[in-house]
Amino acid sequence: MKMKKMTFDTNLYSRQMYAMGRSAMEKLREAKVLISGIGSVGLEISKNLILAGIGHVSIHDAKVVSWNDLSAQFYVTENDIGKNRAEASFSRLQELNDSVQCTCLKPNPLSEDDIKNFDLVIVTDASFDSQLEIDGWARKNGKRFISSDARGLFAYVFVDFGLQFCITDENGEACKEVILEHINCETGDVYTLGNTMHGFEDGDHVVFSEVVGASELNNLDPVPIRVLNSYTFNIGTIAKNSHPYIEGGRAKQVKVPKHVDFKTLGESLKNPDFLVWDFAKFDSPHQMHLLWQALFSFEKKYDRSPNVRSVEDAELLGSIMKAMNTDGLDIPEKSFKPFLSKREEICSQWRL
């Protein structure tokens, strides 16, 4: 697939550039992204990426428009039922931003050769087997992989950006700077002026300036710190051989590139890491993880989705969950009964 080089219109993306930075915007304009699965989730992702100005966006789907799609996939109508979902949505997506090169792949199953043309592959509305296969291809060819789906109020997202992925800015926040009151060169403890809260975290890096006495600190590369309390942090033994501290000084946070190793989808299914947002429901992410695996197992075994509000299918889904629950996790029926009852209720206000 031949893709032309996209130019960067600073007037068109000026506000976005100020928010994200010129470097990030330039990377977006150079990026080539494939979205496979243009149901409600895939369409929303495609729309947002095109509006954001991604350089090249390709969509793909092997499924056709069904009645269920009409409740959430807002670019198809009754006249599109039976048509390929990607092809039915393509013209409307293409109209969103004429500075983005948009293409629509043929409705064949994705192959390893297909993903070699892209920097990032996003998969939605696909079986676990398909996701595992595509993630394997992406990892093998040094590509980034994201998978996501939603069923009613229940959703998930998985990210695999490979090994040694470089993060230049973890949070996008402005670097913090504090005025210093004292530095204990012997212990490495650094105190802020007037007990001002520094806002630093363990592992942050700082550079020093305007330090009188222990002026050697002013010339150091970014120093990793350990937080002792809200007003004090420690820099280790790096100041031990410097001149005695006299007065003054500033410490400013510096964001140092961080390299992260991502797990593959297969590894994450066996040993998942969760972001816990509700500590009153600490087991909820584990339950949802097991629930999604059970749902995909059900669909693979019976070649269909569970019927909505079917007591029999709810029991089948529950039995699959229990069989997969090797860790003895407490799974009350209320954790999967609503999932089944809402599974097909995918109006856009819930699903997207």
Largest sheet: 7 strands, antiparallel
Run of helices and strands: HHEHEHEHEHEEEEEEEEEEEHHHHH
Total number of distinct structural domains:
3
Number of strands: 15
Which CATH architecture of the largest domain?
3-Layer(aba) Sandwich
What would CATH call the homologous superfamily of the largest domain?
NAD(P)-binding Rossmann-like Domain
CATH topology of the largest domain: Rossmann fold
What share of residues are in beta strands?
A: 15-25%
Q: Kindly report the average pLDDT value.
A: 88
Find the structural class using helix and strand composition: alpha/beta
Can you tell me the overall shape? globular
Count up the helices: 11
Gyration radius from CA atoms, angstroms: 26 Å
Low-confidence stretches are 342-352
Keywords: Ligase, Nucleus, Ubl conjugation pathway
Subcellular location: Nucleus
GO molecular function: SUMO activating enzyme activity
GO biological process, one term: protein sumoylation
